[in-house]
Write a structure and sequence with these properties.
Layout: E1 11-16, E2 22-23, E3 39-43, H1 45-51, E4 89-91, H2 93-99, E5 104-108, H3 118-131, E6 136-140, H4 144-156, E7 159-165, H5 170-178, E8 182-186, H6 190-204, E9 207-208, H7 217-221, H8 223-231, E10 239-243, H9 248-262, E11 272-278, H10 283-290, H11 316-325, E12 329-333, H12 335-349, H13 355-369, E13 379-383, H14 391-397
Parallel strand pairs: 5-13, 6-7, 6-9, 7-8, 10-11, 10-13, 11-12
Antiparallel strand pairs: 1-2, 1-3, 4-5
Bound molecules: pyridoxal-5'-phosphate.
Residues 116, 118, 144, 211, 243-249, 307-308, 354, 356, 384-385 line the site of pyridoxal-5'-phosphate (PLP).
């Protein structure tokens, strides 16, 4: 067994996700200034593999920091945690039987601190901000990311500024205020909020932790990939269905699979990655269908799933690549389909999913109907959040 002291981050550098140029991890970075594309963290995986073994996992803490060697925080004293990650991977037997399937699984991210998987990304980003002495953060957010940032910043004693479209779910607005963030409601879309947050960052010397523009949120989200594989006894499922906004989760899971192969946890096999977006906001699906590498921004994004109301994604090409390389696909579902799926997942499984989580079930039904997913395949749905954060929009949709 490895000594506790040997278990530490093996981060080596940041690498531009488009050009491959490298830079150091010791200073704060955002996008590659030369091409405006995200940097991704790289690790010395050969050395990490000596302690980050499959066997070692049984003794690790039950949260996402169990994968410490492939996380970016160097001094453990800087880890800002509320116990995020290591969420259950449920066998959805009743729902599976209803759909005629033999192996349906739901990864329930709704049980994370702050009620969504945004906790993973923000635990990583706030921890790294603390390590890099960035004590004033700002962020544009459709909702859940702002709540998560505000909670982690609160426990770390970091100042935060949030820019949120004024139609963001009420729960997100209230939680930010409760956590002591400076909440600014924006009359516009998340892209407008992003512009204003960027301006505020310049003017008041704030560090903007917009996803993928900041390199470490994706490191938090990638742990979903590690967990799925670990929870399946170090096997890879056939299909992963992901409700996609900016796509950080899909990029992260894809990165984790690559790292796990280098760590010797898995072989070259990969799940088909399915990107689901809302009919009213589907820039990545549009680009995928047109055979393009980058996505055109959507003009008037509209969906009740706030987390998928993202008209332009800085990591567009990374999502599209992951879908293509995996042999997966990309498709849209309507808000009505999502609401029906929220009801189905609730009544069959006792999991009350965010509309985004519902979208994965709607997509599964469509892909079963078109025979693109087989009834005996092992399928993982990512329920990315709890419906309790969406009562103001879901109540009326469910007829209350
Ligand atoms: C943010 C969010 C998403 C989209 O996540 P990305 O990784 O940015 O694509 C999906 N579901 C919920 C509940 C979210 O909060």
């Amino acid at each position: 067994m490895a000594e506790q002291s040997q278990i530490h981050s093996h981060i080596t550098h940041l690498e531009c996700s488009l050009s491959g140029e490298t830079t150091g991890h010791e200073l704060p970075h955002r996008l590659n200034p030369k091409n405006g594309k995200p940097y991704l963290a790289r690790y010395d995986l050969a050395t990490a593999a000596r302690t980050l073994t499959r066997e070692s996992m049984a003794e690790r803490e039950p949260n996402m920091w169990r994968y410490r060697e492939v996380m970016p925080v160097i001094d453990p004293a800087n880890i800002v945690t509320l116990g995020e990650g290591f969420t259950p991977l449920h066998n959805a037997n009743r729902l599976g039987r209803h759909l005629g399937m033999s192996s349906l699984l739901i990864k329930d991210e709704g049980v994370n601190p702050t009620g969504s998987f945004k906790a993973r990304g923000l635990s990583a980003a706030v921890s790294k901000a603390l390590e890099l002495k960035q004590m004033k953060l700002t962020m544009p957010s459709a909702g859940n990311a702002a709540g998560a940032m505000s909670a982690y910043a609160a426990t770390a004693g970091i100042e935060t500024h949030v820019y949120m479209p004024k139609d963001a779910p009420v729960a997100n607005q209230i939680e930010c205020v409760a956590y002591g963030a400076n909440l600014n409601l924006v009359d516009g879309f998340i892209t407008d909020a992003g512009r204003i947050s960027g301006e505020a960052a310049e003017k008041h010397d704030l560090f903007d932790v917009s996803t993928l523009k900041e390199p470490y949120r994706v490191e938090g989200k990638k742990t979903m990939g590690y967990e799925i594989v670990e929870q399946l006894g170090f096997e890879v499922p056939d299909v992963v269905i992901y409700p996609t906004g900016g796509g950080t989760g899909i990029v992260g899971i894809w990165k984790a699979l690559d790292e796990m192969e280098q760590l010797g946890w898995i072989g070259p096999e990969r799940p088909r990655m399915i990107c689901v977006q809302a009919e009213g906001c589907s820039p990545l699906v549009n680009a995928y269908k047109k055979g393009e590498e980058f996505a055109e921004p959507v003009q008037n994004p509209s969906t009740l799933a706030a987390g998928m109301r993202v008209p332009a994604a800085v990591g567009d090409f990374l999502v599209i690549r992951a879908v293509r390389e995996s042999g997966g696909t990309a498709l849209t579902v309507s808000d009505d389909q999502m609401v029906d799926a929220v009801r189905d997942m609730s009544t069959f499984e006792g999991i009350f999913p965010a509309p985004e989580g519902g979208a994965t079930l709607s997509a599964l039904q469509m892909l079963l109907d078109s025979d693109e997913i087989g009834k005996d395949e092992r399928v993982v749905l990512l329920n990315t959040g709890s419906a309790l954060k969406y009562l103001d929009v879901l109540g009326p949709a469910l007829g209350l």
